[in-house]
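SAMPLE LOG
Freezer: B-3
Tube label: C17
Construct: single chain, 479 aa
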Amino acid sequence: MSIMFSRGSALWIIGFVAIALSSPSAWAQERIGSAQALEGNVYLRHANETEFRTLATGNPASLTDTYQTDKNSKLWLKFNDDSHNSMGQLSEIYYYDFEKSGPASFFGADMSGGTIRFIKKLPKTSPASAYILTTPTAIIQVEPTDRPADFVISVYNPKQTTVTVVWGRVRVKNVLEELKTERVLTSCQSVDIDEGKEPSRPIVVSSDTLKELIDQTTIPRTLPVDVPRCEESYVSQPPSLNLGAPPDVGVDIYYPPQIVPEPVRPCGPCEVWDGDDCVPCRWIGMDCIGGRCVRRDCPKCTVWDGSRCITCREIGRECAHGRCVPAGCRDCTIWDGRRCVPCREFGMACEGGRCVRKPCGNCQVLHKNRCVSCGELGLVCEGGRCVRKECTGCSIWNGHRCVPCEEFGKVCVGGRCVSRRDCDSCTFWDGKRCVSCAEMGMTCIGGRCAHRPCGPCQVKHGADCVSCEAAGMTCIDGR
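STRUCTURE (predicted):
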């Protein structure tokens, strides 16, 4: 499912918050977590340093730190907001935002390469909290749910990002502002975000795929390894019509139920319901066997590419114990998912045979593999650091400037922008604004909006009354 950015979703931009430390004395005040466990060689560089140092278990994590894992190494970072990052081999991440503002919290990091697992339970707050990650091609934002979001981001080369959700829900879009399409992913779903393109249509991955991603990124006995039963995520029959009841007496604000149209037919052989329509098995990278969509199990030393089993060599990997693993790279090169490429292709320098990222200067921050000015991210420079601008009274920061509350569909109460829910008679709040009863196909009774009753052999469908036959139903005794 894809939706376009609304005015409210411009709050995504607020997530691009960067705070660059300029002196060693400020360092100790910006601790945001610690290294809980590691395997192999892991490296750390502080913002005021030019060289990477070897990381040890228990070392504190600080704002504007950059972390790198070597081949066959992993790192588990736990943060003060009870979130977790677990890095697989040959990965790199830079932390640019960790802030608390009243009930709201903000987290921001830029991932330039590798495979990293993220776990975060985002609370519902006002103003809204944000947990945002950027890659060379994508912006990923956690959505508030009852269960912590658990997902893996893979950046095998700077032109493609893959996001796979284990649990929870995340929102994904391309980093380019002119590409507006968003994808909302839930458990067992994966999407690719290529350079200069809208995110691909989500596909369902197998439980085995989720287990493999957890194995690639997680040190044993550190973080949960349970995964959902993805094979049950698809249904062969679309949902049926779901009609809601009118509001109870005395209810002033009424949210009409979402009406799901009844399809004219169930999904046929070799088709599956993807949430919007019946689609062929091959559209979601599955095979049709006996009229049903199934995922083919590949033999050892091969992997499923969405349409067929291919050898490890076809994707530039080596076979080890029956599994496809990244090949080793020589000095001054780094694995991009298919081949070893020079450090410079990732915007990095070679030091001691390893690819490292140089620190950014004053009034700059690392973003998408390069140092950019504060202004490019809608930030302001104060004392050589990039900070978010604070707006005064009845306005809110949209990432570039302070704008009136009304531009976000909000009203000003006590000098703050808040959601408007107090509507006049014969109107009600639809989540964004006050609308008249008539706009929602309802009638006004005693100053309240109520559903207009339909006639015999009719049912409510959206704002209209339609015949039973049009809704794929049968009329018996006028109902």
